[in-house]
## 1
Amino acid sequence: MMIVDRRPNPQGKSLPNRQRFLVRVKAQVRRAVADSIDRRRISDVGADEEVKVRVAGTSEPAFRQAGGADGDYVLPGTGTLNRGDRIPKPQGGGGRGHEAADSGGGEDSFEFTLTREEFLDCFFEELELPRLTRTELGEAMLSKPRRAGFSIAGQPTALDVRRTMRNSLARRVALRRPDREDLEGAEREVSEAIAAGDDGRIAAARSALDLMLRRIARIPFIDPIDVRYHRHERVRLPASDAVMFCLMDVSGSMTEHMKGLAKRFFMLLHLFLERKYDRVHVVFIRHTERAQEVDEETFFRSRETGGTVVSSALAEMLRVQAERFPPGAFNIYVAQASDGDNMHADSSAVVALMARILPLVRYFAYVETGQGEEERFGAAPGQETSLWSTYRAIAEDGARQLAMRRMAELRDVWGVFAELFRKDPVGVAP
Amino acid sequence: MTLLFDGAEWDFAKLDATYRACEEIACGELGLTPYPSQIEVITSEQMLDAYSSVGLPLMYRHWSFGKRFARDELLYRAGMQSLAYEIVINSNPCIAYLMEENTMPMQTLVIAHACFGHNHFFRSNHLFRQWTDADGILDYLAFARRFVAECEERHGLAAVERILDAAHALQGQGVHRYLRRKWRLADEEERARARQRYEEESHNPLWSTVPGSDRQAGGGRAVNQAKAALNMPEENLLYLCEKHAPGLRGWQRELVRIVRVVAQYFYPQQQTKLANEGCATAVHYAIMTRLHDRGQIGDGAYLEFLTSHTAVTRQPTLADANFQGWNPYALGFAIMRDIERVCTEPDAEDVHWFPAFAGNGDPWGTLREAWAEYRDESLVRQFLGPKVMRAFRMVNLNDQANEPAYEVTEIHDDSGYRRIRSLLADHYDPARAAPLIEATDVDLAGDRSLRLTYLSRHKQRLHDASARQTLAHLQTLWGYKVTLQEIDADTDRVLGELIAEA
């Protein structure tokens, strides 16, 4: 007989099977993920919450008998049944309980839970931060201290105690500095010699003790040459923080439907950035004629009245950015949603502000939300909105961080997002 | 004697001592002859792993096992399904999984149940002896896993999955029900390599340029010879595909063979659920009781054992909301205890029913024989006595498809005993559980289409949708059109014809 402890074996033995299974139910996983996005707050998405996938259509068929045929079943009775008794059949069911209990080949339908990684993998499959901007701008760099050996000078807080003590010990051994036991031994010898009354022995012991005391006085326990400090070097690392500015027009012309579109787009972007960066800060800026930084709730729920001045939002964004998010430490992303209305006089201000913003940011995504099929893009068919044409001019000027798309229906959101972040470089919409 | 353990905590020394104490009783007093055991302590997650791969420790990779894992995990986490206390594998040495969560009394129960009960059954029952190769199975599974992984690498996941999916669908039709020869899995890997090598060495592209005229020239005789080689009718469809499917490549045939080997390996288990669980339950009951009598386990531990033992052997009646059909533990245990009683303290009724062994004074010898020589169906037919029928208040319900109610036709009284016993035994007849499907014809001279025949008994028809899907899978393996005819076994009338789902 042998007893084997299998508990330390690597876990997740069935992981490859699970991956194969996920591939199998990909369409359903996708749908579940999309549904779960609908229900959540921007910063919640992809957090520890679980995504449940309803699985159907992964049946494993086999030849089996349909049931419902004539037959005899010997069963454990109640003791009160007699020949000729009749027991009504259960409604809506064909076979007996014990027939149905072991239905191996039935259509399976059950829910299972995706891990966070699986959720995101599935979601962002085939998407990439646009290579275009990455190679052009390079990663935002941040300098961070990193341990780099030892030095003989430094801050007291950086003292390496172990190394210092090791040096000290080596030096004391080499120079034969008596330790406490030696000293106690010598003292005992002196007192024993005194007790014995042997003068010669007393003298020898006293001189030995003196020698020790002199050595101790002369050889310090810790010498400045023992002391070592940790040395730090500042290295430049790619910044792992990102900030995402969500800009939205909340004037009366933006309907709930449009805001819903925008919310989903922002959510996707947030999720996507979270996969790439350690920490993602989100700043919500809403605007009518004036712009204002608000929390998420207000951003999506409240409605303002007034005209539309897009430059106010851009100016507010620049202000927040200058205050809290230096471009050297943060990868800056901007996502703007609007129905495209803008005061005509504002265009030149927008162009000027964009000229300042675009060099700072990694990516500026503008999505124009429309009302739906009947009134496709806010403006009459074939006609550009004022903001669209302003941005188009900027993009055609070679601002490659700027990407713009239109969407009108919920089902467009994912497509637009995927288009913006497809692995190939993207340009401006035609 | 001194207690083997005290309290709920277990450790390896206690497991070892307990195993030895159980062994003394099982092999010394009960006369069991199990394989050597290998006890593996695992976590609940590993138990779920084992579940999903049908209990085998080294299964090849396939999405269906992932699906099973996802479902079992969900049920388990939601508290809807508890994990089995043990899983035991018919191998030599016999591997038994013990969950780390079990208390020491539970571990004792599991050791008695799995390492001695099931283990003895695996080694002694004639079905297992004939159909399975406990010495070779672990090595074979390791080979299968490697081979599948290799194929995935060479031919791609999708191509392998296609074949495995198709073969899995036909698992039920992948066994030889009648003995040909014992499988020796140990040489299986070597044989597989040899087949592959032969195929690679003997491949000559010139042959593919020879026009296919010789077959036509040979006329009907060649076709007849080829047909004779197919050995129709053939009930083992996986075997047919592996050996004769026109379009399969060598590695594909090997994959089909792997699925077939695994299916065949499990074939005896389906026929011996009742006997196997009855054996294991009777053995654990005897061992635990004797351990307690000897003073090797305390009263508390024995009570804990009795609690789970009674829970396991509970049989709800058909009026109960929890009724799920027969509980093999309950019925099996009752039959085994009855045999024991008949051997030692028979009354007149027992002598009348079981003249062969009533009062022979050798209950364990009789039980060992029952476990070695019978399967569920014959066990019920031979050993189900009137006392057990009365204890379960057995009744027979007759189900007519067009009637709104079941009719009670037999009850547990003098005129009903024999009929009830016979009907219950019929229920365990493997020929009744699985649909009887055979490949009966191939159009060798024409479009190579394969014809299957399903023999319908008791007006039992095939489940239409799943049969069509399964036919589609068979078509994948066979490579040409497959049709299935449903024929009434009594009248030979054709009930219907199915074709593969598009």
Note: The radius of gyration of chain A is 38 Å.
## 2
Amino acid sequence: MVNRRDFIRLGGAFGLVAAVPGEWPFAAVRPAFGFPGMEAFADTRYAEGRAFAAAARAQSMVVHPVGVDPSAAVTRLAPYARERPTRIVGLTTLAATVVVEAAAADLRMRVRYRGLHGYSADGLMRHELEGDHDLVRVVGGDLAAARDPWAVVLAMRLERLLAGDEPVASRVVEAPAPPSNRMPLQLVSWVIG
Amino acid sequence: MSALPEGVSAEQMRDALAEMRGVVGDAWVISGENPLLRAYRDTLSTAPEEASMPSAAVCPASTEDVQRIVVIANTHRVPLWTISTGKNFAYGGPAPRTAGQIVLDLKRMNRVLEVNTDLAYALVEPGVSYFQLYDHLRERKLRLWIDPAANGLGGVVGNTLDHGVGYTPYGDHLMMQCGMEVVLADGTLVRTGMGALPNTKSWQIFKFGFGPWIDGLFTQSNFGVVTKMGIWLMPEPPASMPFMITFEKEDDLERVIEIVRPLKVNMVIPNAAFTVDLLWEAGVAVTRNQYFTGKGPMPDSHRRKMAADLRLGAWNFYAALYGLPEVIDATFEIIRGAFSSVPGAKVYFEKDRVGDPSFEYRAQLMRGIPNLTEFGLLNWVGGGGHINFSPISPTLGSDATKQYRMIQKTCHEFGFDYIGEFAVGWRDMHHILMLMFDRRDAAETKRAHECFARLIDEAAAEGYGEYRTNLAFMDQVARTYGANGGSLLKLQQRIKRALDPNGILAPGKNGIWPLTAKEGPPT
């Protein structure tokens, strides 16, 4: 599976790490590694969501953009849908997360991991993670030490996130906030399966 | 381990679940430490999640399964809490009234049994969502509209049974319901109205049949389990025109409602129209902290900035016209003329609000297209907490203003924003306050609970009652309907005793408790 070093190296090697002002770096390719057939949902209204989507796409995931109306993502999980995903990952608003979780419950899928990402009162990025013990330790450590944008850091850990078991442990970490493009709300990363 | 229902032993529960497994299979009885059981909690309201944690969920696939399950429940005296799709957000979701009740989850019964294009109706099972019925009609290219609630995940049957409303001319859902199949607590199967006639040709086209009309007894109640329901569908009109009129001042509400009433009562405006406050409209698209990061209700200066940025009014009226284009044009001139008497009123059509999520989702709903955009309000303060306070108001400007001022004052006193709307029915308005709070903040959640309880009592003191409420407040609301010594609730109790003597169906639903429960009705 791709790791952070590979991701940056490959993106850089192909000239695919974009440096668009106001945007976070992202890769725009589908290399032949990663998680083919797995599905990700990302709120592409926000830079964090777009970075997450691009990174997921770069790891061969099928990405469903989620905007102001999460209907398309939720209809994907309808009990009468012809194809059912087994495990899905997302970076969405709280509102979209609530309805995706509710819809997924009808497919007997449940939350395996959840992370709340927002600004603390002193301007730091605050990450509240719930997952299995290893997951919150590993991902929490990455986020605390990260110099890269947090959404990209999360996307670099898709393998670990997707392997999440039960959300029995929690961890809160704070890290420096990105310099610009403050998202106006809390975003939620999640794995459901 | 989840709690057992009051008065039920571990042995009773074990034996009942074992027999239920024999009906639906092991996979469809969720109990004990199964993590899937956690999906049946109410995770959005002010009550602690443990207060509504079921001991099990059982998922039948057919009416026959339901009949067998209620017989088992009666044998072992275990309570069942029925849900259809379980998406009754803000009112309790899939959770039972009290901890330990077994959720009777009808989501597997999700067949669209019939769609009649000539008579424009559908017969559906309780697990059919608005999305599903909409997709069913579109895939078959049937020119019929559904009337969805704002939550497209919601169930057609569940919403109707809870007296929900929609947005098209068929927005009064119970009025558009026609014929039910009901399993009683002893397993008896009843078809209501014309459905009681063997080989009937009219079950879904004439509501009343012969003798007393009893369908209403199975709404907001615990007298039976509805396993099929007819619903009328709206023939697709040749044209439709949603529109929005904004009003600058909070005080405009009284005049707006005075204008709306004759337009509705005379059916000039045919659909379930809405008068929506600024924050509800804004909250779909933006968050509170984009405009105000302080504590307490948002100050007027910030509200004005938000209104200007988003081209919204203090109040925003939404309605739609349907039919032949020339008739729509002529009718709209009547409406325009009526509202032009309000200084500062501005009229918008679809072309004027391209990219405005608030207008777009309401326009979709007024055309029978389900969506989930309104959930964006959950982002307003973050933290996910919300419960709806839903008093009925006469469609009179004086009452609307009185309710608005009363509720706004109490919300502000407790530090919350007023986020509300008035859904105009045939004569009444459903006044919906969406009380948003950060559920991660225990103190704020407690304040929201206290605020809600105060609102119920204040409204009742002025003669206003709620049409629907969250699980945690069902007893309090039921007590407000206490005229003549609480005779209505006592009558409901007598019906409950006659139909369900062991009290196995949804104990406590809407304040109706079986005699076996400690927490009984008011005397």
Note: Chain B has a mean pLDDT of 96.
